[in-house]
Design goal:
- By secondary structure, the protein is mainly beta.
- The chain has no helices and 13 strands.
- A 4-stranded antiparallel β-sheet has the order 4-5-6-7, with no helix packed on it. Strands 8-9-12-13 form a 4-stranded antiparallel β-sheet, with no helix packed on it. Strands 1-2-3 form a 3-stranded antiparallel β-sheet, with no helix packed on it.
- It is globular, with a radius of gyration of 19 Å.
């Protein structure tokens, strides 16, 4: 925390449990569980893929200047466009575990948040993939068909993005 009186971290309760967010305070003698396995969502809309979303993890917590916590989570049920991995998005919650809301809607993942101390904005890693490749044969200038593509390379990069805590003003900050 900004004042060094408490810390927030991700942990598991037992070997087979999901990762959740915890806070340690009062001279590191009081442990509070911030996030819980309490998501109430109907997964039947995902058909056979529903089983991929029954378990979700909360990771990478960081305090915001207002005392709330931003973290990455797979609790929003999406699969990445490339190889179908469960994706992470950023969420904010207060220190009592209330008022949870999603900040990002990343198609392939957003994680590892950090706070810009000057603006209070959230910097985070964003996995961006574009599986469309250039083509002179497709008629559209791009393709997903190997035999029509000019190259086998796809755009598969991690970017640093910045966003306001309310999810507004999303911008690319840097790319590797």
């Amino acid at each position: 925390h900004w004042n060094s009186e408490k810390i927030v971290f991700a942990g598991i309760e037992h070997r087979d449990s999901s990762w959740r967010i915890y806070e340690l305070k009062n001279n590191f003698t009081r442990l509070s569980k911030i996030t819980r396995t309490d998501r109430n969502i109907n997964l039947s809309q995902f058909g056979n893929a529903a089983s991929k979303f029954t378990r979700y993890d909360d990771i990478d917590p960081v305090y915001l200047p207002d005392g709330k916590i931003v973290f990455a989570s797979t609790r929003y049920p999406t699969l990445s466009i490339y190889r179908g991995f469960q994706t992470t998005n950023l969420f904010i919650v207060d220190t009592l575990g209330n008022n949870l809301f999603r900040v990002t809607t990343e198609r392939n993942g957003g994680e590892k948040p950090a706070i810009d101390p000057m603006s209070g904005r959230i910097l985070y890693s964003r996995w961006w993939v574009n599986i469309d490749r250039p083509s002179d044969l497709s008629g559209t200038g791009f393709t997903r068909v190997d035999s029509l593509a000019l190259t086998n390379d796809i755009a598969n990069v991690w970017q640093v993005n910045i966003v306001n805590p309310d999810g507004d003003m999303l911008k690319q900050y840097g790319t590797d």
